[in-house]
Design goal:
Elements lengths: L1 E10 L2 E11 L4 E5 L6 H8 L7 E6 L2 E2 L4 H7 E4 L11 H11 L7 H11 L15 H13 L5 E5 L7 H14 L4 E6 L2 H7 L2 E6 L2 E7 H7 L5 E6 L4 H8 L4 E10 L3 E8 L7 H10 L4 E7 L3 H10 L4
Parallel strand pairs: 3-8, 3-9, 6-7, 7-8
Antiparallel strand pairs: 1-2, 1-4, 4-5, 9-10, 11-13, 11-14, 12-13
Helix pairs in contact: 3-4, 3-5, 4-5
Bound molecules: adenosine-5'-diphosphate and magnesium ion.
Magnesium ion binds next to helix 1.
Length: 314
Amino acid sequence: MIHVSHLTKMYGPRTAVNDLSFDIQKGEIVGFLGPNGAGKSTTMKILTGFMPSTEGKVNVAGFDVFEKPTEVKRNVGYLPETPPVYLEMQVREYVDFAARLHQVPKASLKSAVDSAIERTGLGDVQKRLIGNLSKGYRQRVGLAQALVHNPAVLILDEPTVGLDPKQIIEIRELIKSLAGEHTVVLSSHILPEVTATCQRIIVINKGRIVAEDSIDRLTTRLNKGLVYSLMVKSPSPTALTALRSIHGVAAISEGPNQAGTGTKLTVEIAPGGPEIRDQIVSTAVSQGMGVLEFSSEKVSLEEVFLQLTTSEKA
Ligand SMILES: Nc1ncnc2c1ncn2[C@@H]1O[C@H](COP(=O)(O)OP(=O)(O)O)[C@@H](O)[C@H]1O
Ligand SMILES: [Mg+2]
């Protein structure tokens, strides 16, 4: 549904987006995750045909965004970072205006507006002035204008920024309900935001993709340098040597011995090696170490994100 190849955007001498390539399939919800200034909004503006790129090819809903910007706009709903919401307009009036802008045919105008208002839960406030609405409701109005023409693709730039926790949950639910029928791309600089809503994330840092995977696989894949923790009663030097000589063990460090709980051994595994948990445990047992506990120390996705965006390379 979205194909981006070697997309680069320069603002004068500054490179905001640097050689991005990715594909998004129909019905997916994908999150662009990256710190402020990573290039997320710039990429989204190009995907929606609002801004030209410097280099690269972008195809959205079957149309090249540079050659067919009108067709792209008809198939894309866009919630910009700062939605252009007309404060002196009534909610319904504005959604109707957006529908006309998106060239919804006259005959289906009313039903399109009704449906957008219903899906975004704006029924009770449709006669209110936008200027008198809370931030959460204004964000719904932004979403309503993005989906009023029932576009195949929705591009949502930081859709929950500035909302309170209750509003955040409501907007997330709303976005999730749009998946399947629509292809959704949303951006966020906050990790829980994308983990709560998206199936797949593209991590962007300094204009480049530093990781791209499903949320589960990303955690696992980046869990290179896996660490296991092994609690034993008696870590004899011979037993430790036997553990260290297992192929795939990078290092073992020994914690203090605590009466009752034993000694904690931290077993670091070399990245990309074979699965050796069985071997670690069986060696510990055959060496008579008195195994009390064995567990893996999970690296949280937060740590992964931090690793990805604070180093140049993934
Ligand atoms: N209109 C602009 N003119 C010049 N530089 C810009 C403009 N818009 C964004 N930038 C710069 O491009 C980079 C990427 O910005 P942006 O796409 O807004 O990132 P994000 O949405 O991830 O925070 C930043 O360094 C930003 O300062
Ligand atoms: Mg942005």
